[in-house]
Amino acid sequence: MKFSISRKANSIYAYDLYICTIMGRHNYLVILLLAFQPYNLSASNNTSRLTVVVDNIKKADGEVIITIFNKQEDFLKKYYRLISVPANEDGQVEAFFEGLPEGQYSVSVIHDENSNGELDKNLIGVPKEGFGFSNNKMGTFGPPSYKDCLVDVANKSEIKIVLKSF
C-alpha cells in the first residue's frame, strides 16, 4: 500500500508509518488513527504568496529580473529568491513568489534588455536599463536603503513596482 501525507518533519510520529505498513488491508483503522494526530494538513504553516507587478517596461526585449532580499547585509549582493520573466509588449509583467515565510522583504527589479544578467550602466554609472525597488523608492545617488524598501508579506500580498529609466 502506498501512503503519503505531506507535513512537517518535526510533527510526524514514527508509529504512523509503522501502522501504515502493518495495517495495509485495514485502511479504515489507519485513517481513523491518523485523524487524531496533532498535525495540520492545511496551508497554515505561516507561508505566504507575494505577487510582484512590474510596470513601465519600455521594450519587449530581454527579461525582467525580480529579486527578493531578506537580510540587510545581503541587499543587492546576495538574493533570497529570484524570478526571471520575459519582457512583453504590454509594458507590464507579474511574478509570483510562493511559499515565502511571513515577514519583511526588500524587492529589486531590473529590465535586462540584453539578457546578460546584470544592470548595464554608462561610463559615469547611470543605469542604461530600467530598474525599480519595492515601495517605488529611489536613492539620491545610488540605490535606496534596504529599510526604505521593506514590505510586509503575509498570506497573499501584492506590490507594484514602476520601473525608472534614464
Can you describe what's shown?
- By secondary structure, this protein is mainly beta.
- It has 2 domains: 1-43, no CATH class; 47-162, Sandwich (Immunoglobulin-like).
- It is 11% helix and 33% strand.
- It has 2 helices and 8 strands.
- Strands 2, 3, 5, 6 and 7 form a 5-stranded antiparallel β-sheet that branches. It has a 3-stranded mixed β-sheet with strand order 4-1-8, with no helix packed on it.
Shape: globular
Portion in helices: 10-25%
User: Spans with pLDDT under 50 lasting ≥5 residues?
Assistant: 1-44
Give me the count of strands: 8
Q: N- to C-terminal separation?
A: 62 Å
Count of helix runs: 2
Order of helices and strands: HHEEEEEEEE
- Count of separate structural domains: 2
Mean pLDDT: 80
Rg: 22 Å
- Tell me the major beta sheet: 5 strands, antiparallel
What is the CATH class name of the largest domain? Mainly Beta
List the helices and strands and how they pair.
Elements lengths: L13 H9 L4 H9 L11 E9 L7 E7 L11 E6 L5 E10 L1 E10 L18 E3 L17 E3 L2 E7 L4
Parallel strand pairs: 1-8
Antiparallel strand pairs: 1-4, 2-3, 2-5, 5-6, 5-7
Task: Give a summary of the structure in a few sentences.
11% of the residues lie in helices and 33% in strands.
